[in-house]
Amino acid sequence: MTTTVRHRVVVVAYDDVELVEVACVTSAFDGANRLHASPPYEVRLVTPQGRPVRCSSGLVLGAQAALERTRGPVDTLLVVGGPGHAAAAQNTRLVEHVRRLAGISHRVASVCTGASVLAATGLLDGRRVTTHWAYARNLAQRHPAVHVDAAPLYLRDEHVCTSAGVTGALDLTLAFIEEDHGPALARMLARMMVTYLQRPGNQAQISMFVGAPAPEDGTVQRTVEHITGHLDGDLSTTTLATYAGVSGRHLARLFLDHLGQTPAQFVRTARAEAASHLLVSTALPLASIARRCGFSSAETMRQLFLQHYGTTPSQHRTVHSTSRNAPTAGRHDQAQPLESDMT
Q1: What is the dihedral of CA 88, 90, 92, 96, to 10 degrees?
Q2: Taking each helix axis from N to C terminus, what angle separates 19-35 and 168-181, rounded to the nearest 10 degrees?
């Protein structure tokens, strides 16, 4: 009788790890095992010296193996995050063994601030990666050779995958399961876990309208409030600078210092997010949404969506629609000059 070869997953944890991230990863793989006729995954939680680790919540997790004694082959090596990530990244012995295992792993991944540990190994140098939005700047400053993008839920750069924080671990793991065993198993598992069905990696971690604190600078804060309240108006940098009572160059400098982006970049993101909300919560035609959000045409909105989300407005509406009145993508697109939207 032929024995099925199971996909070997090694999850690396350490003191002050985030329990939710460990649970999202291990529970999803376990769920896939329970739904599949031939359980496809073997998951092991490994820690330094194989000792129990204290989670940031105070609970204690028992390890299944010692990191130092773990050998290949490894199909997926995954380092989770948590408040203890900085200490873990400075633990030369831990980093050395993560580097060793990464060298014999088919797929290497991190969740949230687990990226700090992978960055310490040098594996992320020259790669585009993500992490929890609140820690992105710190990661970029500590590792200037790493290209940090705080926006996506998860990113893949060749065989290295990184994801956002906490429940972003579940999105990444579902993506792995779909990659390994197809969309049917991933969708069945998502339903079983009562979670959002297949959030794409390029979906933003947080909404710019609710996710980050208001800018500390009064001029930036007033300008941001004006932008978000007048998306269908003239929001050129020159016009915004006049509104703010400063020069265009000074306004750009303030935005870069406090928001990490230029006024024009902020306006594009604001319009894209507003359009995204209207696409999934209303049945408005694409042209109407484009006008409300300040785009010169539905085609201009489409081009920004491709740049911002890696998908078209029609596809975004089809995947994410939450309104019972929202149409299927094709019904409204037939009334718009955007047949290419469906390609």
Answers
A1: 60
A2: 30
State the Cα angle at 144 between 143 and 147, rounded to 5°.
95
**Are residues 322 and 281 in contact, defined by beta-carbon separation less than 8 angstroms?**
yes
Q: Considering just the CA atoms, what is the radius of gyration of the chain in Å?
A: 22
Average pLDDT over residues 17-26: 96
Beta bridge partners of 55: 17
The pLDDT value given to residue 320? 65
- Residues facing residue 79 across a β-bridge: 12, 110
Q: HSE (CB half, 13 Å, CA atoms) of 161?
A: 25
Return the closest-CA partner of residue 340 out of 288, 309, 303, 310. 303
Span 100-112, pLDDT tens digits? 999 999 999 999 9
Give the integer Cα–Cα distance in Å for 75 and 70.
13
How far is Cα 213 from Cα 134, in angstroms, rounded to an integer? 11
Model's pTM, two decimal places? Answer: 0.65
Q: Give the CA count within 13 Å in the CB-facing half-sphere of 140.
A: 15
196 confidence band (pLDDT: 50, 70, 90): low
Q: CA-to-CA distance for 341 and 306, rounded, in angstroms? A: 10
